[in-house]
Amino acid sequence: MPGAAPDGEPVPDDGALPASAGIGAAARDLGAYVHVPFCRVRCGYCDFNTYTAEELRGATRGGYPDEVLREIALAARVLGDVDATRQLSTVFFGGGTPTLLPPGDLARMLHGLRDTFGLVDGAEVTVEANPDSIDAAGLEALAAAGVTRVSFGMQSAVPHVLRTLDRTHDPARVPQVVAAARAAGLETSVDLIYGTPGESLDDWRTSLDAAIALEPGHISAYALIVERGTALARRIRRGEIAPVDDDLHAEMYEVLDARTAEAGFEWYEVSNWSLGGRSPSRHNLSYWRDADWWGFGPGAHSHAGGVRWWNAKHPAAYAQRLAAGRTPAVGREVLDEATKRFERIMLGVRLREGLDVSLLDDRGPVAGLIADGLVEAPAAFAGRLVPTLRGRLMADAIARRLV
Question: Which residues form the signal peptide (predicted)?
């Protein structure tokens, strides 16, 4: 089960934000994240805020769209006090498995956002999907509802790797749904995980080549992190499977970078590649660029103008608070300048666009980063810190050296 919510200061029952959240709001993009916390099974590596049918205890999938619509109405009141003029630039349905809900339910929530806030011209609307949780008819229905992009959880093309991850889909299903999404006029992205215990370098090449052969517009690839409390962590602790090999992770990343470049993909964030640089995830870029977003649903986090807040984690608690006319948010923090500066540095050094050196109080470490081959020298001399391939493998270390 997911862990406890973070600590924080109390949130007023009406969800009102501090006045500071409105400073400069008109100049910032506004996005919406809708968390759909339902899964058929819990994958052994996952520590996301998700629930199987047996874990819902008083909550239901059927009532979920109405609960999110209640939070949308609350968000309109709260954000109306900050800046009532902004429309949504991006919408992202994540989870969990959003496509466990019928397409009509996802459409109701999307239409609620559109009717309440409006969508900018060309807004990006993404839905995450497991390959076995959607079909061609469902994809066509999503496109008709206004979805523009689908992100498929491929993870691997190798059956024994999928088994270790407790993924249940047939790898042969992935090309079918990607092709169906494309036929429906949707942009496509595939998510991969590398470094699973027992996964060889050849296994990883197989998965990577299979993903590229799908011709998606976007690939995300994440090194497996074994989170405490997960079934995978327990299996490693008991010695049932080998621990993760960090050196192999690095080698896999180098293969990933070379192979995607050969296929015409450009990296724009440490774990994300866009074909020809044409289709990065604008929603995720909004997180990395410190935009505003409202996270709807159990456990979802939101941010506006340096104020961050988070909802009750269990779907039943989330629903009960909304039914009582209260905000579902159970805690928040107002970021001080030092924290905001650290986060801008931490995120900036993960991006191809780099970090503006003017954000640094002390530029002394920059020369050492150049000498160690962690940032590109020409870009640094021009005022931006852009990580090299080696630097991308050590992005967190770069951030620590800069602060």
Answer: none
